[in-house]
Structure formats: structure tokens, C-alpha cells
TrEMBL record:
It comes from the Bacteria. It comes from Psychromonas ingrahamii (strain DSM 17664 / CCUG 51855 / 37). Belongs to the UPF0162 family. This is Protein SirB1 N-terminal domain-containing protein. Residues 50-195 form the Protein SirB1 N-terminal domain. InterPro entries: SirB1_N, TPR-like_helical_dom_sf.
Amino acid sequence: MTTVSKNEKTEFIINEQFDFAEHSLVDAAISVESELTGLNVAEFHKTLRLQHLVLQSQLSDFDLVDKAKLLKLIDCLYQQQAFKGDWKAFFKVENALVSNVLSRRKGIPISLGVLLLDFLKESQFDAQGICFPSGFIIRVNIEDETLYIDPFTGELASRNLLELKLRGQLGNHARLSPEMLEPDDNKTIIMRLINVIKAAYVQEESLEQALLCCDMLLRIDPNDAYEVRDRGFLFQQLDCLNLARTDFEFFIDHYPQDPIVGLLKRQIRQIDIDTPTQVVH
């Protein structure tokens, strides 16, 4: 059961020194969201605590942490409470933000997965998240059995189904390997979540918010040249041309043989032409 002290949450700054092992995945996700949207963390945890109590009541008849209890938990969430993947608006920001997913009960694999992992662990299951190529999945270890849950549908996924999903994402020659089913740590999962949120902001042309996502990712990994490159494209779209040039040059210095280098050099030449009319931010 969740204790009072566990739910008296404050915002954490996500950066290179952040101890992802010390904090829960949902705490880290909500800290990201509070920085992006100004979410009231305490109010979110009140809502989350209520969900914990509902599940605790629904699962009170189960003495063992077994497959029957797992199926009941999934039924409570995906049938009785109608949590589900949002097929119609997959790439919307509201589907990537965990607090919105909790209130709307609709989302995408990684945002639903962050919540489902929290519910599973609150219910004493041994569960881990996996940044699977075709979408986030959850591994649950029950006695001698390993089960996989697709948080987008709430269905148990067989290895055959996972390989079909993999081929749909990577092509017919792709094959499922044991390494693909190894769990990821909280840091890796949070970075993937931030990248998904960033892509959603870019799609809806909220470039300043996307830039905040870049900033968070680079606070976690300051030497990620690919993220610096992506930030450069955002700076360019925001007419911060000198900043864009600096980021493009950083990437070129680190990956001079990358296929995109030719494009970046052309962008730099265009920036040199446009710099006199630069907008200062």
C-alpha cells in the first residue's frame, strides 16, 4: 500500500546527476512533465493514489502474486476502467503525457506502459519495461514463467506475436533475439519517453516545447551529438541561426562521415547568408 511519505512528492530536476535508480519511473516521468507543462505534482499523486486504492480493493481476494492476479489486474484496467491505446490520435501530445493518460485513460505504448508498470509494482509484481523496437512492452516474471504485456492493448503477447510486430517495424528479415527482450533501466525508458514527447511537440509545431525536451535530454547526456543536431534544426526553425550553426558544427566534428553531414554543411552556408537578418532570442 502506498504510504503518505511516498506520495508527498516534489519536483526533481532531471539531469546528468539524477539518480534514476533512487526514484520510481512514474516519479521521473512526472518530473519531466512538470517542467514541460507546469503540472501540479502533488495533485497528480493524489489521483494516482486513488487508482492504487481502487486496484488494491479489486485485487484484495488474491493471496498469491500469480497469473490469475495478473489477469485480474489487466481486466480491471483495460475492461472495467477502459484504459486503451488511442489509435485515432497516436502522435498527439496528450497521448504522451502520463498525467493526461491517467485522467483520459487513453495513450500510446510508452505512456500507458509507465502507468501500468507503476500499477504492477504497487500490486507486488516483478515487472520491467522494455524499449522494444515496435513499441514499449512490459515483462512480468511470475514463478518460472515470463510473460509480456502490450500496454497499448492490455494483451499478453506471445513471442510469435512479438516477432510479427518486430517484422512490421523493421522488415520481414528481422528476427527476435533474446537481447531485444532484456529489460531497460529507468534512464533509458525516460529518455525514450522524452523523445516521444519531443516528436509529438514537433508534429504540432510547438517548437519551444520541443526545444525544452532537447534541453532535458542533453542534461541527461550532454555528449549526445545526435540530440545536439536535432536541437540545431529546432534552433534553425526558431531563427536562432548562430545557435543552429554551432550545433551543426558540433555534430560534424563528432561524426564527419555521417550521411547527413552534406545537408548540414549546406544549412550552415545558408545560415551564413541569412545571419544578418537573424532574430535574437
